[in-house]
Amino acid sequence: MKYLTTILLTVSILPLSAQQIVINTEHTALVLRVDKDKRLHQTYLGKRLIHEKEYDMLSNMGEVCIANGNGDYFEPAFHISNNKGNETLVLKYVSHQVKKTEDNNTETVIVLSDEVRQNSVRLFYKTYSKEDVISTYAEIINGEQQPVYLYKYASALLHLNAEAYYLTQFNGDWAAEVGMTESRLGFGKKIIDSNLGTRTNMFASPFFVLSLEKNAEENTGKALIGTLGWTGNFRFTFEVDHENKLRVISGINPYNSKYELKVGETFKTPEFIFTYSERGTGEASRNIHSWARRHRVKDGQGERLTLLNNWEATYFDFNEKKIIALIDEAKTLGLDMFLLDDGWFGNKYPRNNDNAGLGDWQPNKKKLPNGLNALTAATAKKGIKFGLWIEPEMVNPKSELIEQHPDWAIAWNDRTQSYFRNQLVLDMSNPEVQAYVFNIIDGLLTTCPNISYFKWDCNSPMTNVYSAYEQSCQSHLFIDYVKGFYAVLDRLKTKYPHLPMMLCAGGGGRTDYEALRYFTEFWASDNTDPIDRLYIQWGYSYLFPAKTICSHVTAWNKKVDIKFKIDVAMMGKMGFDLNFSTLSKPDAEFCKYAVQTYNGIKDIIFEGNLYRLVSPYNNTHTASMFIDNASKRAVVFAFDIFPRYSKTAPQPLRLQGLQAAKMYRVKEINRYDGKEQKIGTFSGDYLMSIGLQAFTGKRLESHVFYLEE
Ligand code: DGJ
Fold this sequence. Notes:
By secondary structure, this protein is of the alpha+beta class. It is 21% helix and 32% strand.
């Protein structure tokens, strides 16, 4: 009898009036249910079940579209008021539709509406089945006969229910990007956000890892990686309630961003993109990487150019002769491109330091008397490409641009202004400024058609936040700025669909997946100390595939040898930022050899699957490996950081992702002596169970191994 009662309790089937919406990828399901009052609930987020019918037995976890005043006691996703002071909204299900997308995935669109105020919200859920990624956003439509004001407008509200929640956040500062810290979430709210306007990820990155039940691990455990595709202010709110249930609200940071919607207008939120895995953070990252390459990053499956950048070689102090010498060096090294950085422009106010010239994008006649075309001619002669640094959203108060258009800068004029790096942000909410920025870049490409690449910098957050253009609605500025930025990028992408571009913001101050629709890669940090880079690149690897992470070899940290530096840079999109004449002959020769090595393995690093083997956060050793999709070729990078004196015989490094039954020939490559060394032939089983002697007890050594079936 007792047995029978249990069955009756658990097999409670879905009430007839309820309707279920199942959003599936290959291994993940998000299940929503409409109740008899037409309220939309989430009933599940987790591993996809074999029998869809069994979702019927699950109970409601919480509403999907919680708005202010609808009877919920915790943080709402939406807060929309009208002129009459009506602050409440109850969003009820109206209809939904599932469409097949061009890439053979699905998009589910759910319409909800408030019966009293006629405002509606459309929720979009796009699935990427093979990659186990779901992206979701909302459209808010003002159906009232009066303006409404958006105070909160989240992209997603997800409910989770687990014994414990561990949040990994990625934060830091200039030259210390994406430091990882994990903490257990307890009752109350934890917020990760940015209100910097531009260069928004200087302190906090717009992504997180959430681990359920136990601390995040690479190969086991339930992990959700989430990120917001928005190059402006963002906010993630994690709220644990009295029953230990967690809700995660992701979206634009509503800070100082009350947004007015006129009658009939629609507001589209940015995308929240997430993946869920029950096999740890390693698989979750690989999901996001595959999705990014196939579906998101500009030319995600295309080639990437190795390059020599002059920034750290010359800073502002260069002339045509010096640059041509560097172009020659780039060619000698076997690189694909030379990239000219900051300092090439400005005449009335020459850009000889960061005090002046931003905004005046004409080549400086003293440094470059023959203009940019003389340089592109030099690269063309050598058979390499030419790239150019720009920072088109910014202006120095000492510039001709600000003299001509004082109202184009975001700045108040009735009190002392404050500057970040002596500059102001141009008001990209203003269509005239958008046109100016587009024309600057288009003009450069027209007058100098051999420019094949841009590094687009953005060094300042917004200071003195006031827009002459948005006079009557200052609180629109943070949002309209980002829309203006995208409008320019859209025009550029339409006209130059395959122009590679590096996203840069004073190091890694802009790192989001909406910007990466327009950029092929991003500058991870101005910190190129190879030891720090091990941590920084490790952090970014949770979200971004290696081919998008620009990693340059520089003079930072003279105690570390060139091989170690290059081995670190090889784990991303490698480049150099060095004056080779400062290197010893053998070091310079090794650089040349290393470029050849890299060209032979970069397809595995760019298109393969990443396995993070040993975290640098243990401070003694770190290792990662990339393996191609057929599990035939792999590259292993192993670094000894600061092993303790007593640890002279480290344990073998166990590899991952190989096929146990396959035999792999292993050799050490990229050795300083230029000779490859055979290590032996081992089964995948052996390499994954016993491992490879990859670490040493010495400090600051590095080894690269190549495996082939
Ligand atoms: C900041 C970037 O991160 C650097 O790489 C360099 O381009 C400087 N700006 C130039 O001002």
